[in-house]
Amino acid sequence: AAFFIFDTFCSSSKLLKKFDGHVKCINSIDYSTFDSRQLLCSGSRDNIVCVWDIETNQQVQSFHGHSLFVFCVKFSQYHYYSHHQNVICSSSYDTTIRFWDFKHNQQLQMFGEHANTIKLCVYGMLKHQNHYMFSMDIKMLNNIGLIGGNGYTICSTSFDKTIRIWDIESTKQLILFKGHKHYVNNVKYGSNEFINTILSGSTDFSVRLWDMRSGKKIQIFNGHTDVVHAVEYSPFVIKNSDEVIGGNSNVICSGSSDNTIRFWDIRSNKKELYVMEGVGEKGNDGIKSRKE
């Protein structure tokens, strides 16, 4: 398997780089800069995590510790800025989350309390009292009133229908969210007024909003007729009947295999504010991801 970098600013969409090395499909990639080096990491169904140097087009490192395929990979800004370590986090079908030091080619930590496959991992930072979160949106980050440790956390979703928040240093589980009736496919940490919340989308067709302080569900948003793959706190102003419904704090959106993107008022679990219809028949591909 290979992945590519295209020149998206040219009308020709010229291929700039191609990285070969994986032997099965690639599930996840991430980009970051470490010590002035531009790097990519990748996770694959061949169970391998790889790091690539974009400038030299070379593989920097590969890790073979996972026993089943890798779902998600993220560079850890926490390790870099706190300890000046070059670290990747990966989650796998083998039910573990692992941290890899790609400068010294070693595994640092392993988390493994999910009863089933870990689908997604995201970083966050818990802070004391009135301080706010560190939201690196390396797919999801967070913040709440500090529970323990130094405040840095990682969030994982799983096929065991749960969402878990972990302390990175101690590897201890801090919060467990239960309520989804099927796999949890995606989560997102809130910010601003909703900094103490988490948003999730599931194979049970629902979108849920959670309170990180109480560990309880706040709202369930029902309306999708197929699997929810993507959730996001919307920065957009939504208009309905020429009336402004929400700004950057009270509107969320979700993408589903029902080929729709739906917008919801975070303050209410009533019918969606707005529905964007997709192209094609239900269940073919659907909407798998969204990003501003």
From TrEMBL:
CDD domains named in the record: WD40
InterPro entries assigned: WD40/YVTN_repeat-like_dom_sf (IPR015943), WD40_PAC1 (IPR020472), WD40_repeat_CS (IPR019775), WD40_repeat_dom_sf (IPR036322), WD40_rpt (IPR001680)
Any one of the GO CC terms: transferase complex
Keywords: Repeat, WD repeat
Pfam families assigned: WD40
Placement of WD repeats on the sequence: 19-62, 63-110, 150-176, 177-220, 221-274
Lipid biosynthesis is among the record's keywords: no
Gene3D superfamilies, per the entry: YVTN repeat-like/Quinoprotein amine dehydrogenase (2.130.10.10)
PANTHER family cross-referenced by the UniProt entry: WD REPEAT DOMAIN 5B (PTHR22847:SF637), WD40 REPEAT PROTEIN (PTHR22847)
Protein name, as recorded: G-protein beta WD-40 repeats containing protein
Species of the source: Reticulomyxa filosa
Highest classification ranks of the organism: Eukaryota, Sar, Rhizaria, Retaria, Foraminifera
